[in-house]
Amino acid sequence: MNNNYFNAIANRYEFVLLYDVENGNPNGDPDAGNMPRMDPETGHGIVTDVCIKRKIRNYVETRCLGKPGFDIYVRQDTILNQQDQRGLEAVQDVKEKNEKSTGFREKMCETFFDIRAFGAVMTTAAKDKTLSNVAGQVRGPIQIAFGRSVEPIAPREITITRVAITTEEKGATASTEMGRKSIVPYGLYLQEGYISANLARTITGFSNADLEVFWDALLHMFDDDRSAARGKMALRALIVFRHDSPLGNAHAHKLFSRVNVTRKNGVAIPRKYEDYIVAIDTDDVPAGVSVEVKYQDAR
After folding, report:
1. 26-81 per-position pLDDT tens digit
2. Residue 264's beta-bridge partner residues?
3. What is the number of other CB atoms lying within 10 angstroms of the CB of residue 200?
4. Long-range contact set of residues 63-69: C-beta below 8 Å, sequence gap at least 24
5. Domain residues of the chain, as ranges?
6. 3-state DSSP call for residue 240?
């Protein structure tokens, strides 16, 4: 077994992210003309887990560029079948099926940070008859739920113009072109996540060193992801619940309920983080659980 498995995390974690957006689109919906994602029944904004994991991957790739074990499996302009070959080449001389499957999975987890963290579906391996089905489907210890705005959002479509014309035909009759930009004037989002020590130690080998890189990515992912389309996005708080055991000492949903966000009295339309009160209940925490506020914006 790879040494990474002996260094795997031994504690379960849950975490809460609070972040906001100002005059930007935090996560466009391709089914709605790239408007900000929304719950159609409540009007609350939504940010997918995939959106946040993309930012984490990008940050880790930049921070750990060239560092062994911190390659990124899912990245832009990469063919996943070619990525899978790196694991297949490591076990090409192994004949026994279970040994080959284990060796392939361990090689891929050893090589790619995001497989150790989030897992992966490796299509080449899944179709390889010399491997078991589980070799190509790795379940990662870190799972992130959809983010949701604290209150309903009010998206806007802003009309924009440009002086460059795309085609000769349009240039014969017009000197400008019209376009649209979708924004949320302001929204405060809350997103929750889970880290399983059991999956880390039995499947991917996600280690304490990996965990520190992950926390660092959460703290800085917005700073490395600037875009005019996303406006001003900022992390406002990162709260971590650490369990003393691999399987946990309390229900996750009860720990999440200790983070409460309310609008300040007298604020009619929130337009900044200071329009909210963020309360973190650290009293009478269940035995075997500790609360760490890794970051919270000062008022």
Report:
1. 999 999 999 999 999 999 999 999 999 999 999 999 999 999 999 999 998 899 98
2. none
3. 29
4. 63/213, 63/216, 63/217, 64/113, 64/213, 69/4, 69/110, 69/111, 69/113
5. 3-156+181-296
6. strand
**Is-contact 11 245, C-beta < 8 A?**
yes
Q: What is the pLDDT of residues 144-174, one digit of tens each?
A: 999 999 999 999 999 988 888 888 888 888 8
Does residue 12 contact residue 196 with C-beta atoms inside 8 Å? yes
Distance CA 251, CA 258 (A): 12
Residues near 154 by beta carbon (within 8 Å), at least 6 away in sequence: 43, 184, 185
Q: Which residue has the tokens 């499947």?
A: 203
Q: Residues 105, 111, 117, 121: is their CA dihedral positive or negative?
A: negative
Q: Tell me how crowded residue 282 is: count the other CB atoms within 10 A of its CB.
A: 12
DSSP element (H, E) containing 62 = helix 49-63
Handedness of CA 287, 247, 15, 150 (dihedral sign): negative
- Give every CB contact of residue 254 below 8 A, 6+ residues apart in sequence: 286
Q: Is the dihedral of CA 71, 73, 74, 78 positive or negative?
A: positive
Q: Is 110 in a helix, a strand, or coil?
A: helix
Q: What is the pTM of this model?
A: 0.93
Residue 269 CA, distance from chain mean position: 29
Nearest partner of 154 among 271, 288, 7, judged by Cα: 271
Q: How far apart are the first and last CA of the chain?
A: 49
CA distances from 236 to 18, 103, 190, 272, 299 (A): 5, 41, 10, 11, 10
Distances from the Cα of 177 to the Cα of 32, 170, 171, 214, 228, angstroms? 22, 9, 9, 43, 19
Element (H, E) at 59: helix 49-63
Pairing of strands 137-139, 119-121: antiparallel
